[in-house]
Amino acid sequence: MIVTIDGVAASGKSSVSSGVAQALGVPYVSSGLLYRAVTLLGLNAGADLADPSALLPLLSAVRLEPLASGNRVWNADHDLTADLHSTRVDGGVSTVAALPEIREWVDAQLRALPAPLVAEGRDMGTNVFPHAPHKFYLTASPRVRAERRARERPEDIPAIEAALTERDRQDTTQSAPAPDARIIDTGPLTLQGVIDTILNDLR
Ligand SMILES: Nc1ncnc2c1ncn2[C@@H]1O[C@H](COP(=O)(O)OP(=O)(O)O)[C@@H](O)[C@H]1O
Ligand SMILES: Nc1ccn([C@H]2C[C@H](O)[C@@H](COP(=O)(O)OP(=O)(O)O)O2)c(=O)n1
Asked: In CATH, what class is 2-202?
């Protein structure tokens, strides 16, 4: 059984997926962490983030460890996870995610994972797991999402909102909801309310 949870930045995908996965007793996988890992390694290597031939050789020892408690991304024996959510990575990840060669690499990592699992990202229900029986797509207004992000990163809310809106625009190509996905506006709901909405759907 595969559950896909897609949506725009800061809509609650990771938190909701973790809650749903823990309730179901299955792992969840955050596909965005792989794009973030490619971006981080590219930045650290001084590589051109728009050049897949410069990025792919950096990925030979990268692996995603999906745990019910949270995902970890390793580069050989180096845990990258703590460095993946930063404004620096946010600034480059859409460039990396636009590369077909990188998307193929990420998709292969994801499809190699055993079911059951909860998979979250932008295109889990459309491209990576199109036959998944349960698909959800989370939304919220840019302002609501910026206010949520601001609680994690003490930055100016209008600046965060502008950055999220720009990343939404850059990610448009791969971010459309699957036609058979249930769309949930998470703005009026608590985090637990979104989790319960999905769990009720799965019963
Ligand atoms: N429905 C909600 N109500 C309030 N806060 C939420 C809700 N969903 C998520 N959050 C919080 O918003 C922040 C961003 O959520 P996250 O799961 O990281 O989103 P995404 O993975 O879509 O970027 C986190 O701090 C999370 O706890
Ligand atoms: N399946 C995916 C997941 C993420 N991406 C891209 C789009 C996002 O800007 C980056 C980072 O994704 P991530 O889910 O970590 O970002 P947010 O938590 O939504 O801020 O990767 C993608 O193109 N396809």
From this structure: alpha beta
